[in-house]
């Protein structure tokens, strides 16, 4: 049984029978000399074969054999009476569609299929659109193309930083920045004035700021003003932030405004790269980390701050149809009591967690960066873990969290796949 099929079983449904394929974690195919994203592209000309089965239309096109339930085909009609092309919203009342509906007539030309329904309504579908939006097509596509990396891969890529002046005035510079961020999960902007105000202005070019109990923009030193190890001079192991939120913050921004001392380098680790290694070596451990929900918890009783946050979810969050990891919750500091796993699963979960931790802590997977005034770092908090060296002296950082939906919205508005 494939992992993708296993996840579907765990989520209460089964995939239709199909040829087995290698599971996807990273959304790309690795070859010796290149990285190519999984993406279905219909050929210029191709033959089309179709058959009306008892409950679905079977369509063979562009190398794919696809199956469409008849009720799905009626529900997704984009005719003027069923779909508002100005608002891109459905007009059709799905609740009024007969669940056992079946087309009365079907015909196909070089580019389209036409379905005539019992009431005489005609639905036209472009064949390439059906291939791209079929379940079988989605199994071959990555929701988010990315390049997973270790230190050597990222360093060799020589990803350029954005320039503050161009970033703030030129959409092409913003698009290049977001393109790099989507591929690698991290991106830098250089030449930013070392102030909280400039950092805030910079982030608002990308997205709305997500306000949390830490405030909108945070500006802190190692004064232990909050009940968190980040507000000390201690080293921090790799972790994702706000794992104790039901929806962890999507993007984190760091800007070191001042450091009068030694140490304090920032550690970055691509969690998707390590998850992919676990999947390749021990699929059962990968499956367990993606299936078992655990709790993360944050309890704060410092000064005037009283907070008790709990987030629940698996370490690895995976799209069940293509086995693509889209979020990691990994924070050993904030992991709560494990009381959501039966006793016969607990040790197996620890074994799986240990394997992922071992991968995350391999030196070759660590990218160390010295943050300095003017250099702003954006981190995909659902993917890339961060940490730091211990340090001496005064070190002042500012930053914020960004709303993930708005970052992706900005990227899509610039023509990027996100």
Automatic annotation (TrEMBL):
GO terms for cellular component: mitochondrion. GO terms for molecular function: iron ion binding; trimethyllysine dioxygenase activity. Pfam families: GBBH-like_N (PF06155), TauD (PF02668). Its EC number is 1.14.11.8. Keywords: Carnitine biosynthesis, Dioxygenase, Iron, Metal-binding, Oxidoreductase. One of its GO terms (biological process) is carnitine biosynthetic process. It catalyses: N(6),N(6),N(6)-trimethyl-L-lysine + 2-oxoglutarate + O2 = (3S)-3-hydroxy-N(6),N(6),N(6)-trimethyl-L-lysine + succinate + CO2. Residues 53-130 form the Gamma-butyrobetaine hydroxylase-like N-terminal domain. Pathway: Amine and polyamine biosynthesis; carnitine biosynthesis. Its cofactor is Fe(2+); L-ascorbate. InterPro entries: AlphaKG_dependent_hydroxylases, GBBH-like_N, GBBH-like_N_sf, TauD-like_sf, TauD/TfdA-like, Trimethyllysine_dOase. Residues 161-401 form the TauD/TfdA-like domain. It is an enzyme of class 1 (oxidoreductase). Converts trimethyllysine (TML) into hydroxytrimethyllysine (HTML). Belongs to the gamma-BBH/TMLD family. This is Trimethyllysine dioxygenase, mitochondrial. The gene is TMLHE.
């Amino acid at each position: 049984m494939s992992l993708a099929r296993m996840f579907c079983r765990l989520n209460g449904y089964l995939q239709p029978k199909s040829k087995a394929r290698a599971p996807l974690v990273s959304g790309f195919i690795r070859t010796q000399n290149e990285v190519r994203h999984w993406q279905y592209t219909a050929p210029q000309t191709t033959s089309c074969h179709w058959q009306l089965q008892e409950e679905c239309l079977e369509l063979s096109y562009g190398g794919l054999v696809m199956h469409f339930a008849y009720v799905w085909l009626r529900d997704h009609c984009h005719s003027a009476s069923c779909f508002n092309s100005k608002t891109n919203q459905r007009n059709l009342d799905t609740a009024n569609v007969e669940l056992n509906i079946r087309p009365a007539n079907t015909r196909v030309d070089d580019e389209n299929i036409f379905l005539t329904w019992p009431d005489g309504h005609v639905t036209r579908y472009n064949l390439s659109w059906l291939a791209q939006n079929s379940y079988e097509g989605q199994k071959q596509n990555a929701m988010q193309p990315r390049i997973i990396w270790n230190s050597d891969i990222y360093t060799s890529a020589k990803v350029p930083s954005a320039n503050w002046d161009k970033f703030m005035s030129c959409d092409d510079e913003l698009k290049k920045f977001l393109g790099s961020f989507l591929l690698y999960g991290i991106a830098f902007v250089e030449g930013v004035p070392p102030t909280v105000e400039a950092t805030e202005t910079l982030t608002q070019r990308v997205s709305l700021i997500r306000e949390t109990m830490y405030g909108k923009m945070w500006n802190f030193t190692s004064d232990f003003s909050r009940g968190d190890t980040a507000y000390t001079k201690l080293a921090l192991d790799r972790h994702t932030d706000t794992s104790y939120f039901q929806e962890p913050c999507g993007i984190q921004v760091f800007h070191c405004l001042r450091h009068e001392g030694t140490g304090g380098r920032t550690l970055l680790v691509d969690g998707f790269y390590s998850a992919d290694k676990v999947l390749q070596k021990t699929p059962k451990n990968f499956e367990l980390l993606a299936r078992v929900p655990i709790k993360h918890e944050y309890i704060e009783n410092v000064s005037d701050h009283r907070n008790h946050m709990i987030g629940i979810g698996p370490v690895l969050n995976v799209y069940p149809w293509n086995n693509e990891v889209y979020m990691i919750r990994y924070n050993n500091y904030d992991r709560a009591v494990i009381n959501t796993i039966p006793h016969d699963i607990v040790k197996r979960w620890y074994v799986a967690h240990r394997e992922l931790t071992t991968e995350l802590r391999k030196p070759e997977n660590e990218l160390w960066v010295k943050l300095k005034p003017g250099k702003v770092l954006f981190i995909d908090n659902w993917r890339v873990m961060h940490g730091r060296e211990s340090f001496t002296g005064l070190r002042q950082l500012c930053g914020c969290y960004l709303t993930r939906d708005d970052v992706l919205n900005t990227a899509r508005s610039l023509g990027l796949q996100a």
